[in-house]
Amino acid sequence: MTTVLKTKTILLSAAAAMALTACVPGGYTGANNPDQSPNANRNAGAITGALIGGALGAKSKGDEKLTKAAAGAIVGGVIGGAIGSQLDRQAQELRRDLTTNGVSVVRQGNQLIVTMPQDVLFATDSAAVRPDLQRDLYTLAGSLNRYPDTTVEVVGHTDNTGDAAYNMRLSRQRAQSVANVLINGGVPSYRVIPTGRGEDQPIASNLTPEGRQANRRVEFIIRPNN
Question: With contact defined as beta carbons under 8 Å apart, do 205 and 162 qualify?
Answer without folding.
Answer: no
